[in-house]
Design brief:
- Four copies of one chain form a homotetramer.
- The first copy, chain A, has two domains: 2-126 and 289-302, Rossmann fold (3-Layer(aba) Sandwich); 128-286, Dihydrodipicolinate Reductase, domain 2 (2-Layer Sandwich).
- Chain A is built from nine helices and 14 strands.
- Chain A has helices spanning 12-21, 42-45, 76-83, 110-118, 128-142, 171-174, 189-199, 232-242, 288-302; strands at 2-7, 27-33, 57-58, 67-70, 91-94, 106-108, 122-125, 150-156, 179-180, 207-213, 220-227, 249-252, 267-274, 277-284.
- The first copy, chain A, starts with a strand and ends in a 16-residue tail after the last helix.
Chain lengths: 318, 318, 318, 318
Amino acid sequence: MKKIGIIGGGGYTAGELIRILQYHPQVEISYVHSNSQQGKTISDVHEDLIGETELVFTGDLHFEVDAIFLCMGHGQSATFVEKNDIPASVAIIDLSRDYRLSESYVYGLPELNKTAIRQSNRIANCGCFATAVQLGLLPLAFAKKLNQPVHIHAITGSTGAGQKPAPTTHFSWRNNNISIYKAFTHQHLDEIKRSLHQLQPDASLELNFLPLRGDFPRGIYASLYTQTQQSLEELYELYEDYYADHPFTIVTRKNPYLKQVVNTNKALIHLARHEDKVLIISMIDNLVKGASGQAVQNMNLVFGWEETLGLQLKALAF
Amino acid sequence: MKKIGIIGGGGYTAGELIRILQYHPQVEISYVHSNSQQGKTISDVHEDLIGETELVFTGDLHFEVDAIFLCMGHGQSATFVEKNDIPASVAIIDLSRDYRLSESYVYGLPELNKTAIRQSNRIANCGCFATAVQLGLLPLAFAKKLNQPVHIHAITGSTGAGQKPAPTTHFSWRNNNISIYKAFTHQHLDEIKRSLHQLQPDASLELNFLPLRGDFPRGIYASLYTQTQQSLEELYELYEDYYADHPFTIVTRKNPYLKQVVNTNKALIHLARHEDKVLIISMIDNLVKGASGQAVQNMNLVFGWEETLGLQLKALAF
Amino acid sequence: MKKIGIIGGGGYTAGELIRILQYHPQVEISYVHSNSQQGKTISDVHEDLIGETELVFTGDLHFEVDAIFLCMGHGQSATFVEKNDIPASVAIIDLSRDYRLSESYVYGLPELNKTAIRQSNRIANCGCFATAVQLGLLPLAFAKKLNQPVHIHAITGSTGAGQKPAPTTHFSWRNNNISIYKAFTHQHLDEIKRSLHQLQPDASLELNFLPLRGDFPRGIYASLYTQTQQSLEELYELYEDYYADHPFTIVTRKNPYLKQVVNTNKALIHLARHEDKVLIISMIDNLVKGASGQAVQNMNLVFGWEETLGLQLKALAF
Amino acid sequence: MKKIGIIGGGGYTAGELIRILQYHPQVEISYVHSNSQQGKTISDVHEDLIGETELVFTGDLHFEVDAIFLCMGHGQSATFVEKNDIPASVAIIDLSRDYRLSESYVYGLPELNKTAIRQSNRIANCGCFATAVQLGLLPLAFAKKLNQPVHIHAITGSTGAGQKPAPTTHFSWRNNNISIYKAFTHQHLDEIKRSLHQLQPDASLELNFLPLRGDFPRGIYASLYTQTQQSLEELYELYEDYYADHPFTIVTRKNPYLKQVVNTNKALIHLARHEDKVLIISMIDNLVKGASGQAVQNMNLVFGWEETLGLQLKALAF
């Protein structure tokens, strides 16, 4: 059994990580660190865990573990890593944005970097929108066919906005509501572009990206289209080949819907063609494949385990 | 045209009041007062009002109006009334709890006190749960038949908890969720009991009241039952007679559902009988009949107008 | 008072029409015709109307009215008009698609055809998606600036799919779910293109339109973007000028959200600029401005009344 | 590995069973039988299962399995068992109501009948409301303290109404709505009363039960109260003792909320006291602990396995 430490244990991604890791057959959670919650039980904060764990948040830190997950806010991971003398043997999986564009961390999207992840123990876990968008585009870039502007709309659940209350996460406001934010300028564009460029150095990087706030808690539903000359059948072959060795990314020929992936680590990809364009539907659970599930998938790779270990999660379905 | 001032204009009930009063044929809003929002336009805060009003929140106060509505938090109305020298000619309609048990204000539930409201200009607007529960019980108390314990279960929308964010109004938490609060001890019980006692001095005041937080923004759905010897037909006659002159409270013989009243000033009452018990369903929109719509209804009575003036609101229905 | 007949009275748009017309100051509903519901009361079917109307669905038809609204399914309006000898003096407002591309009916979008609507009494009411999309693009076409492909993404509420149960309107499925349908091929594209061509004969008609099924009952939220050389200020002036005489279409400089228009006849339009593109947000309530409210607006114009008569509806807001 | 057959594979409970059993470490699904769906793949119908199973619905029936689960509609299980010659060695777990009051099947509520379930292979799986209500009352009956009328309100998710569309499961209707049905007369009362009588032959069986339709897909939230003389501490001890050996039923001293149990096989029980009454909150996921999860729990007991095998499900939480 590998020993795990979780840093920044009070937020949504840490909670989701605990939910997954507690039943992972090869790890045990050594501690969950939180400055703000220390002394409370885990289930005082992540209340659905009542009856499943007796763990208590700690304010004491140590690195006698095999891996740590950094679940703090953006900016705080880098500070933490600088301030603490983390042994090189301890794997670090950072769920923040801090190292995603860094050379010293492997960008943690297994569908792009599986081999590199297996050989590293410094992983910058991929962002949620970035996961959904990249899974929709990677095969095209891999085939050097991403040559035209891409039009991307993606609707996200409210958990993407985190735990801290805001006017746009107030139930009275968000129920049955839709709105847009950061149109064309979302901060995940940088990491997306770097990945596309990695696969196709001359890829078109005109990504017109409209993120929307959806009136549901979990999930990202992305629709993307671009011009391409390949037939639908060629495109399906390309995508199916690309994802053949990636157990969580499923290419489906049937028009999918978001709840097929909610509460799972799966991504669903669907293609359609209209005149000279291909439409790509890509969807994930933002807290699982878009955050904590993918972090566990990365850990499995780092430790040389089966990628799906501990991640065979029952879908919500309804 | 009567002139209206609204005090405490930034909250949910003030917004709802403006939505209704702006199209009321006999009034004009002179000012909307708010310490926290002064200088902003009304539609900066109540954003759906964009295009409908050019009003700006003011920090200046005056009483050269025919009526003021107090929409501040509980406790602040009494302070406001004490600190300001409000002319006796200015009608005061207070939406807080502060004067509901006072002798100097008429308790503003038209289905109980219509004549007194018409003769007064100091009105303590009835609470939201209190409206739903009383409308379910008043005819029984009027007939002196409220002699046994009452069992009350009422689910409220999130707007009942106000605008200020709280863990229990966070969308990620409240969506598809249900919980209970203040079981048996909700603060509206006092005003309910006083009204029942007013109609039936020896009424049973054992009211077992379970309030629940529903996963919808608007509405209160209450189910009540108690033992009674009257037949269903006698009960329907009693309720239909009692509400015959109350245009907003409708007795229906068909099992109703909450969205029949959402966005209206209506209350729906339905009765059923099982063995020795009567089941009473009572439902309102908590922000309309449970707050601002009822405040306008009270104003109409105070000014001697038709009770329904400005309150013929299109139901949401879906 | 003008007399009104409603044909096909059992569906969503007829219900919404009755909700609005019952409080319209210049009309009375003479009859509501329905083959399937005849003999039932209106509130047996449109249950929120309980206590507001004593009308009964009729199976008898006559044309001793001033206007009829056709609320039947697509295809049935044309059949009805052919089979019945409707006097030329009776205004016909058809809510189906049947006459939208016809020369003999005026296309009922007041923001495009107000003068023609005023001079006609044969109106083909504009479709719901078509309303949202056109309101986003008409000023550009009017200024002859619609010269580049347009990218359109629009999310609709479930009431757009009508009353008949379907797998995609089952609550267990649709709650917290998102999906796409008729990508690039939605049937409203034809009417949209005709309108754009009317204003700008050489307009780009490459409209890439992705309609999505949202997990809310009411509303359409559309985001559109296209290349343009005008500055944001020039664009705002263009839109504000274009809509200056259209009381229901509001141009706002603040990022809006869908619930600002729910349960109203308003459309909200917002603009933003990114590099060489303009982003246009356009939103309506699909049952009101997208159907029955717009039908009443058209009727007001046909009868020479104030456009807003009977349409000053309180927003839901929450 | 034990071999499993599922009969009536197209409905909600069968889908949920497949979701759970596919990752159960000790079983393999031999076949999923469905007359209506035969020839389709499992994921054509239970679409979230795409990528997880290649199984196809079969119309052929055989009993060379270790257990069959009957997931047909109420009434059809008994017909099936009568018409087919099922070997005595094949365990039958019936999810319908058909055998719940029968002497020949063990009533499948492990918290009541764990020993008997272990010794049988004919199990009538407990109903969903019946599970929530009984888990709230069993300890009181066990202690012979259920001597006064019980007042029960329980709100259920839409999946409790099954897959077949109905007016009350239409999204446009059910979203943000609440209604009551079968007040005082729900068909689960019989099985509840039999269990209470089993533990306390002189128990009060006056159960005033109001079931409500909630506007969420999954879960049952039940509140129950009755008069009792025991202190809160005595009651907690009683409940904690009773459930000490039942890993899925958790007694919590903190006011819980429904989403703590959604997508899990857990039940949460909370107690409070007010004057002479105890309030009991009991909640489950109606499709898991209220149906398919409990069916697997029963199977585990029948086969002599650890009760929690295959049932350590990640909570949805949000």
